[in-house]
Automatic annotation (TrEMBL):
PROSITE patterns for this protein: THF_DHG_CYH_1, THF_DHG_CYH_2
Family matches, as Pfam families: THF_DHG_CYH, THF_DHG_CYH_C
UniProt name for this protein: methenyltetrahydrofolate cyclohydrolase
PANTHER family the UniProt entry points to: BIFUNCTIONAL PROTEIN FOLD 1, MITOCHONDRIAL, C-1-TETRAHYDROFOLATE SYNTHASE, CYTOPLASMIC-RELATED
Domain Tetrahydrofolate dehydrogenase/cyclohydrolase NAD(P)-binding, residue spans: 224-371
Oxidoreductase found in the keyword field: yes
Length: 376
């Protein structure tokens, strides 16, 4: 009797593991099929409607079953040398995605006479915020997305921000609301972001969206734009994520936390390194995938990287450079030239993650409008 039960249990485990492998292999083949055919199908209606390669998160959920080889240590030897790593061109990938968004927006307008709408609230005159908002508004115009901007002074009251939010929450022509961060210190960021309608939270920062991102079997309405862009870069670059060691440097609510959750949902083994972590270099140099968003220029040197690692640099740090047009230039968290000699692939700064953030904002706004109108 006992032996029979054990055999049945083993049979069930083997069946589940086989199904799991088939699911992963099938999804991998489907992604590869799309990558290989996308260039030849740019004018095909079906390919145009599939803007991103990232699948729904719930489609990735697998049963948590530990096999008999779970305690086996795989002694992989790192590549002996990397002659020159691949530079992941986020700018060109983002342009392709934005063009697909524009096609879908045009199709929506022609089919139902509606277009997606994005409202942006800008408080103060921070130079970086002004630049970001200008780029987002321009991207909306190019994609055919309606955009409206509310500008408030640094000294505005919290009630002024709330009034603008309530107005956009009730406006049926607005499908996405974005409050440009950071806010002036006298304003309560948590209180303000919580007022944004869940259905219009295209930044993905609402607690319910973040909570659903963290839970197996749940699908957030929106994934935060920068982490979503990072994941799309990995997928489009053919990077294997399942079972790989990933280290995320930084634990902000905007990037570090959500990208760690996304990587975990894609079955990576994730470690978060932050300012209080002991021996961060030793931890990071074991990673197959490194995503860094610390905001510290050239923090990650070659000694932090395993040969053949894939590096996604989210950091954007201005450093003085008298030879540059504005007296400064942008660098990332990663020492780029050193990473090129040891990583298998790395994103540049600028031109890597930044353009993808805006592209994902357009995707989220379009998805919100599609959901409201039942448009596919």
């Amino acid at each position: 009797m006992v032996i029979g039960q054990q055999v049945t249990k083993i049979t069930r485990m083997m069946a589940v593991k086989t199904a799991t492998r088939r699911l992963l292999v099938g999804w991998a083949k489907e992604s590869q099929r799309y990558l290989s055919s996308a260039a030849d199908c740019k004018h095909n209606h079906r390919s145009q409607s599939q803007i991103l390669l990232s699948p729904p998160l719930v489609s990735l959920d697998l049963p948590e079953i530990w096999g008999s080889d779970s305690n086996h240590y795989d002694h992989h030897q790192p590549p002996s040398s990397i002659t020159r790593s691949k530079v992941i061109d986020g700018k060109s990938i983002a342009e392709e995605i934005r063009s697909r968004v524009a096609v879908d927006v045009k199709r929506m307008k022609e089919s139902i006479g509606k277009v997606p709408g994005l409202a942006v609230i800008l408080i103060g005159q921070r130079r970086d915020s002004l630049t970001y908002v200008r780029n987002k508004i321009k991207a909306c115009e190019e994609a055919g997305i309606k955009s409206v901007l509310t500008e408030l002074p640094d000294c505005c009251a919290e009630e002024d921000v709330m009034t603008a939010l309530f107005k956009y929450n009730e406006d049926s022509s607005i499908h996405g609301i974005l409050v440009q961060l950071p806010l002036p210190e006298h304003l309560d960021e948590e209180k303000i972001l919580n007022v944004v309608s869940l259905e219009k939270d295209v930044d993905g920062f609402h607690p319910l969206n973040m909570g659903n991102l963290s839970m197996r079997g749940r699908e957030p309405l929106f994934v935060p734009c920068t982490p979503k862009g990072c994941l799309e870069l990995l997928i489009r670059s053919g990077v294997e994520i399942v079972g790989k060691k990933a280290v995320v440097i930084g634990r902000s609510n905007i990037v570090g936390l959500p990208i760690s959750l996304l990587l975990q949902r894609h079955h990576a083994t994730v470690t978060i390194v932050h300012a209080c972590t002991k021996n961060p270099e030793r931890i990071t140099c074991e990673a197959d995938i490194v995503v860094t968003a610390a905001g510290v220029p050239n923090l990650v040197r070659s000694s932090w990287l395993k040969p053949g690692a894939v590096v996604i640099d989210v950091g954007t740090c201005p450093i003085e450079d008298p030879s540059a047009e504005y007296g400064y230039r942008l660098v990332g968290d990663v020492c780029f030239e050193e990473a090129l000699r040891i990583a298998s692939a790395v994103t540049p700064v600028p031109g890597g993650v930044g353009p993808m953030t805006i592209a994902m904002l357009l995707c989220n706004t379009l998805d919100s409008a599609k959901r409201l109108y039942g448009f596919t």
